[in-house]
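[step 3/7] inverse_fold.run input=structure_tokens len=258
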């Protein structure tokens, strides 16, 4: 079996509904309204570091403060409704960061129908458009006058050479479309071939073991290198192999070897 066939087999194994309950993608799957999925998915992706069970519980706590109706909350909350968020914290993401995210989403959804609008600024059909799109998104996200300097570290940008793994994971959820039920495929302007593989610890480790990554450090260029290799296997949908690399990484950590 060559590497492409091996990865295809692993994609089939992990890209299925059983993947959802133990992964942060379970958070947006609690909703059916497009804007709720966007907001819940964005928070779940940005908070996705540490133990997956902890990430999921923190997201559930956060959404409960929004009465589990995040889009309605962004449009209609009052000042006193923000008080519970003063106690929210996950790792280095604290109340200052949470309140700015809420301020941004409140402004966004009063002026735009979808969060997708924030990710397509300067969009072109070029296969390598994502670097510019993510840089533009970072500037757009922090355009409000009250944007705290400390919060900028929670939204990665290629301009800072970051691998942008959480944003790339969120975009995979929103853009990829298939019949397996994990990714949502809600957004149509960004194309699946433009997505960049989320290069987290598991993906990075397995990618190196399989010879898909040669770059020593893990940064934006590493994510690009990995994605270009994956495009050799499927130029239209390279990030489907994220399921294979991530799944094998978790499996290796739990059971040893693969």
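[step 3/7] decode complete -> sequence:
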């Amino acid at each position: 079996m060559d590497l492409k066939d091996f990865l295809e087999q692993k994609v089939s194994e992990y890209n299925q509904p059983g993947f959802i309950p133990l992964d942060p993608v379970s958070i947006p799957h609690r909703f059916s309204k497009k804007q709720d999925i966007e907001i819940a998915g964005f928070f779940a992706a940005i908070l996705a570091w540490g133990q997956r069970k902890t990430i999921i519980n923190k997201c559930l706590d956060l959404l409960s403060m929004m009465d589990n109706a995040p889009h309605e909350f962004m449009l209609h909350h009052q000042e006193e409704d923000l008080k519970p968020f003063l106690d929210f914290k996950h790792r280095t993401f604290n109340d200052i960061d949470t309140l700015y995210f809420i301020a941004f989403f409140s402004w966004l959804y009063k002026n735009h129908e979808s969060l997708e609008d924030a990710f397509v600024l300067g969009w072109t059909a070029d296969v390598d458009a994502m670097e510019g799109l993510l840089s533009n998104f970072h500037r757009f996200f922090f355009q409000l006058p009250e944007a705290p300097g400390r919060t900028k570290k929670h939204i990665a940008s290629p301009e800072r050479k970051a691998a942008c793994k959480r944003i790339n994971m969120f975009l995979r959820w929103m853009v990829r479309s298939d019949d397996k039920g994990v990714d949502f495929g809600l957004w149509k302007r960004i194309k699946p071939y433009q997505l960049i593989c989320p290069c987290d610890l598991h993906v990075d480790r397995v990618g190196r073991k399989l010879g898909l990554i040669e770059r020593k450090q893990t940064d934006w260029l590493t994510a690009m290198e990995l994605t270009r290799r994956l495009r050799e296997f499927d130029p239209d949908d390279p990030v489907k192999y994220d399921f294979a690399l991530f799944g094998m990484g978790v499996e290796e950590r739990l059971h040893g070897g693969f």
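[step 4/7] annotate
Residues 254-258 have pLDDT under 50 and may be disordered.
Residues 66 and 231 are 40 Å apart (CA to CA).
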